[in-house]
Design brief:
This protein is of the alpha+beta class and 193 residues long. 52% of the residues lie in helices and 17% in strands. Helix 2 crosses helix 8 (174-191). The longest helix is centred in the middle third of the chain and has 19 residues, at 114-132.
Length: 193
């Protein structure tokens, strides 16, 4: 099982973004939904590695969050309230979020299988840094492609040439991100034994 503990960065000098985040992330496939645990922190329980990667990278792109992912068992049955959950995955998510606060990609993975979790952490961190360093233009081009647009349609929507879209996608590392997502999903699955 996967537990995500997410902490708002620089919350003392910023508005509280937690309630908005909880609403915006409720459509993901979650075992237990995001819920405020304390102050500017939220937590959720997830069973699918692909969802974990999607959430982690979405949070990286938002630039206001540090994300810790705990991989391991949880006490079952899970309580209805996310914040009442217990078990190693919850404890590891707490350790991970503290480490994420000082990591370049603002994400960290900790797990009961130390080697597998370290591999997943490395892969996710590399993709997170790629996502975090994207320009606004690169994000716009990728967003068009994720909506299902062709490069021609994306060019039209952005008011640029098809070649410019292709260049933005290349510079933004879309293909590297896709490969990194897949690798991270496999490594998370391996860590969740």
């Amino acid at each position: 099982m996967f537990v995500l503990t997410v902490d708002q960065r620089r919350s003392r000098r910023d508005v509280d973004r937690v309630d908005k985040l909880i609403v915006e992330l409720e459509d993901h496939d979650l075992v237990r939904p995001f819920q405020r645990t304390a102050g500017d922190e939220v937590q959720a329980v997830v069973s699918d590695p692909a969802t974990v990667v999607d959430l982690a990278l979405e949070l990286v792109a938002r630039k206001h969050w540090s994300t810790g992912i705990g991989v391991g068992p949880v006490e079952e049955p899970l309580p209805k309230e996310t914040r009442a959950g217990r078990g190693p995955a919850f404890e590891l998510a707490r350790v991970a979020v503290e480490r994420a606060k000082s990591s370049p990609g603002r994400v960290a993975v900790e797990g009961t299988d130390l080697d597998s979790a370290a591999d997943a952490d490395t892969a996710l961190s590399l993709v997170a840094v790629l996502v975090a360093r994207r320009t606004d233009e690169g994000r716009e081009a990728i967003e068009q492609i994720r909506r299902g647009c062709t490069q021609t349609e994306a060019a039209r929507a952005l008011g640029i040439s098809k070649q410019a879209v292709s260049q933005r996608l290349s510079t933004a590392g879309l293909q590297i991100e896709i490969a990194g997502r897949r690798l991270t999903e496999r490594l998370l699955k391996r860590a969740d034994i």
